[in-house]
Design a protein that fits this description.
By secondary structure, this protein is an alpha+beta fold. The chain has a two-stranded antiparallel sheet. A hairpin with a 4-residue loop joins strand 1 and strand 2.
Length: 119
């Protein structure tokens, strides 16, 4: 089953949607299509460089914008959306609701790391 996506270039964000269970082949096809899309720039290749030279205030503003987008997407999800199942690259099989919790936990880990360094 194909995965549809939209590139939100001004936010450097890819919003992807699929129905039902997404197979590994579906995911691989999606990644390949995205890699061939001329509008897509991999954040893994540009993340560090695009942040070079930004002030702490600018970095905080960028962080806020990305988090606001994520919150808006999650707030717009239905119970049916949250119950969709898929495969996470690291955690394996699970429901979207759990993937959202993992994303939150991931950010909290980095916040804790920062706190340890500055205190």
């Amino acid at each position: 089953m194909p995965i549809k996506y939209k590139i939100l270039k001004n936010r450097k964000f890819v919003y992807a949607v699929g129905e039902g269970q997404i197979s590994f082949d579906d995911l691989l096809q999606h990644v390949n299509e995205l890699a061939e899309d001329p509008k897509y720039v991999s954040p893994n290749l540009t993340q560090t460089k695009k942040l070079d030279g930004l002030t702490v205030e600018e970095l905080i503003e960028q962080f806020k914008l990305v988090r606001e987008d994520t919150i808006a997407i999650v707030q717009g999800m239905s119970e049916q959306d949250l119950n969709r199942e898929g495969m996470h690259a690291f955690h394996g099989h699970g429901k979207l609701e759990r993937f959202i919790i993992w994303a939150y936990e991931h950010v909290r880990i980095h916040e804790d790391e920062i706190r340890k360094v500055i205190h």
